[in-house]
Amino acid sequence: MKLLHLDASILGDHSVSRTVSAAVVAQLKDGTHDLEISYRDLADAPPAHLSAAHIGQGEPDATPSDLETGQAMLDEFLAADIVVIGAPMYNFTIPTQLKAWLDRILVAGKTFRYTESGPEGLAGGKRVIVAVSRGGHYGPESPASAFEHVETYLRTVFAFIGIPDPEIIVAEGVMVGPDGRQQAISTALDQAAHLQAA
């Protein structure tokens, strides 16, 4: 069984989403003896932004190495049985590095296709777990819930390619003082520790 672990935070060792995503991977590894793990740090080696060459339109304005990297990312995703993503909220949405990765895996004919009855996801059967960190409070009961575009966006994206129920662990309020940060981390780590093994 193959697990793909992705982190997108730019904060390195200070990152809450990295802490939680690592705990998720550790929990799954402990419960699965044959788990093969690959790791990609999207902040350390960010994909280039999407260009016309990536979707076969217009002049080829992407370098061969960039196209090869995009293909490698798609191949990694397609080969994975489980995908674990560390996804912090930056300015109400996902980091640009994570968006660039998503642009490499949302590929017509590979992870989705258009049919007469509408789009059809082709990447079903994968387990996706997302560790989300948010500086403030943006949950459904929060007055700021309409500003939340990480969890909602990722649920939409993965449903579109055939993964309708990604598991989301949220560390919320990490910038609301030291106590708030610790409580957010503790709650998220507790959820990670109770994840069902692969």
TrEMBL record:
Q: Which InterPro entries match?
A: Flavodoxin_fold (IPR003680), Flavoprotein-like_sf (IPR029039), FMN-dep_NADH:Q_OxRdtase_AzoR1 (IPR050104), NADH:quinone_OxRdtase_FMN_depd (IPR023048)
Cited Gene3D superfamilies: 3.40.50.360
Keywords recorded for this protein, A-Z: Flavoprotein, FMN, NAD, Oxidoreductase
Identify the EC number(s): 1.6.5.-, 1.7.1.17
Q: Which residues are FMN-binding?
A: S9, S15, V16, S17, M89, Y90, N91, F92, S133, R134, G135, G136
Which Pfam families does this entry report, sorted A to Z? Flavodoxin_2
**Which region is the signal sequence?**
none
All residue ranges annotated as the Flavodoxin-like fold domain in the record = 1-193
Free-text comment on the cofactor: Binds 1 FMN per subunit.
Catalytic activity reads: 2 a quinone + NADH + H(+) = 2 a 1,4-benzosemiquinone + NAD(+); N,N-dimethyl-1,4-phenylenediamine + anthranilate + 2 NAD(+) = 2-(4-dimethylaminophenyl)diazenylbenzoate + 2 NADH + 2 H(+)
Instruction: Tell me its cofactors.
Output: FMN
Question: GO molecular function of the protein, one example?
Answer: electron transfer activity
Q: Describe the task this protein carries out.
A: Quinone reductase that provides resistance to thiol-specific stress caused by electrophilic quinones. Also exhibits azoreductase activity. Catalyzes the reductive cleavage of the azo bond in aromatic azo compounds to the corresponding amines.
Tell me how this protein assembles: Homodimer.
Which family does this protein fall into? Answer: Belongs to the azoreductase type 1 family.
- Supply the name of the protein: FMN dependent NADH:quinone oxidoreductase
Tell me the organism: Methyloligella halotolerans
Gene label: azoR
